[in-house]
């Protein structure tokens, strides 16, 4: 039997979430909405997409793993609980979307909400996922008391979380690039 790698995805998520939120806080409403000519998405779209994907990820794991139990919370997405699609006037046919698989034309027309509302949703989505991961790690620090099928499910959840972490990093890179195109300064460039 092989050795299991150490697992501390929570601290990695906390770090990337903090980085995204701090970066986004510094943006103006115009920077949030700006798109280079011929490009379909803005920084605001990427922040919305991160919030939606994070919200969806936690909800779908809970929905598909009822063995986790009620302690892990309600599987209903924040998006649905707060009726954000209607509040932000998203097209009704896109109510369930998380921003994946949209055509460039559709992505470019999505109504990005005001910065404070968008970042509030992003913060709530991030917090809910972090709380989920913390509980998962506390309750299942090892697999001693679970059957083989449930052990496999828990391992798949952890693998999906790690994969999703790379998703967040890719979007952060895109966000930093879009800001750099606007200002000449990315996150790795010192302002002079």
Question: What features would you describe in this structure?
Answer:
- Helices cover 62% and strands 0% of the residues.
- The longest helix is centred in the last third of the chain and has 36 residues, at 148-183.
- It is globular, with a radius of gyration of 18 Å.
- The protein is mostly helical.
- Helix 1 (9-25) packs antiparallel against helix 7 (115-139), helix 1 runs parallel beside helix 8 and helix 3 runs parallel beside helix 7.
- It has one domain (10-183): Four Helix Bundle (Hemerythrin (Met), subunit A), CATH 1.20.120.450.
Brief account:
62% of the residues lie in helices and 0% in strands. By secondary structure, the protein is mainly α.
Order of helices and strands: HHHHHHHH
Number of domains: 1
Q: Under CATH, the topology is which? A: Four Helix Bundle (Hemerythrin (Met), subunit A)
CATH architecture: Up-down Bundle
Oligomer: single chain
- Our count of helices gives 8
Task: Please report the first level of CATH classification, the CATH class.
Answer: Mainly Alpha
Q: Unreliable runs, pLDDT <50, ≥5 residues?
A: 1-5
Percent in strands: under 5%
- Overall helicity: 55-70%
Number of strands: 0
- Which value, in Å, is the CA radius of gyration? 18 Å
The rounded distance between the terminal residues' Cα atoms is 55 Å
Q: In CATH, what is the homologous superfamily?
A: dinb family like domain
Overall pLDDT score:
88
Sheet with most strands: none
Q: From the helix content, strand content and strand pairing, which structural class follows?
A: mainly alpha
- Gross morphology is globular
């Amino acid at each position: 039997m092989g050795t299991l790698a150490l697992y501390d995805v929570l601290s990695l998520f906390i770090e990337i979430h903090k980085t995204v939120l701090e970066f986004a806080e510094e943006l103006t409403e115009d920077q949030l909405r700006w798109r280079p000519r011929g490009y379909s998405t803005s920084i605001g779209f990427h922040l919305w997409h991160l919030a939606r994907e994070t919200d969806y990820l936690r909800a779908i794991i809970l929905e598909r793993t009822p063995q986790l139990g009620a302690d892990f919370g309600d599987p209903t997405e924040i998006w649905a609980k707060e009726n954000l699609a209607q509040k932000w006037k998203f097209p009704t046919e896109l109510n369930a979307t998380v921003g994946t698989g949209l055509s460039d034309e559709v992505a470019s027309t999505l109504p990005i909400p005001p910065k404070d509302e968008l970042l509030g949703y992003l913060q709530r989505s991030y917090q809910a996922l972090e709380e989920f991961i913390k509980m998962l790690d506390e309750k299942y620090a090892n697999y001693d008391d679970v059957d083989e099928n449930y052990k496999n499910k828990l391992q798949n959840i952890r693998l999906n979380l790690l994969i999703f972490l790379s998703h967040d990093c890719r979007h952060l890179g895109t966000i930093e690039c879009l800001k750099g195109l606007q200002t000449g300064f990315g996150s790795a460039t010192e302002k002079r």
